[in-house]
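Tip: read the tokens left to right.
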């Protein structure tokens, strides 16, 4: 779609006709990650000032969805999957398989362009870490997190998420 504004122009700054034309002319790929894993990652990167994971989660919950950082805000509110018809949804933990498919669809040699992913190791590590950190939370926090991310858990294939339990 011909660029009519600066490269950093956000989609919302275009009118509806321009948005529809742009979205119709691109292959739209959405990368998603289990919301609980996103929270763990944010905590480990020091994105909150909380001394413990449990207190970090409480800060997130107390802040609510409207005040949430883009790092842990529910994906549905960021990506609008009900409004934008994505061509592909790629789930973190299956990147090598999914990216290979996308590159082949684009007519590119998938094998030579992909970095060496260790999806199995990443999934195992996050599974173990998730269980450890989930056990630190109170039952009330677990229920509140499930409610906080209810639309993400409904919209995306996070069947093994601890938040769906």
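Filled-in amino acids:
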């Amino acid at each position: 779609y011909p660029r009519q504004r600066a490269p950093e122009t956000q989609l919302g700054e275009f009118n509806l006709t321009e948005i529809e034309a742009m979205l119709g002319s691109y292959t739209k790929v959405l990368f998603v990650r289990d919301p609980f894993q996103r929270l763990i990652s944010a905590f480990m990167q020091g994105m909150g000032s909380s001394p413990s994971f449990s207190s970090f989660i409480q800060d997130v919950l107390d802040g609510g969805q409207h005040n949430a950082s883009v790092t842990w805000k529910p994906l549905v509110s960021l990506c609008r999957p009900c409004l934008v018809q994505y061509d592909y949804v790629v789930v973190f933990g299956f990147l090598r398989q999914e990216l290979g498919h996308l590159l082949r669809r684009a007519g590119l040699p998938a094998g030579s362009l992909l970095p060496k992913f260790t999806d199995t190791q990443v999934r195992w590590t996050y599974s173990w870490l998730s269980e450890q950190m989930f056990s630190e939370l109170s039952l009330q926090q677990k229920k509140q997190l499930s409610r906080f991310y209810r639309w993400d858990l409904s919209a995306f294939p996070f069947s093994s998420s601890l938040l769906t339990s």
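The chain is about 50% helix and 5% strand. The longest strand covers residues 29-32.
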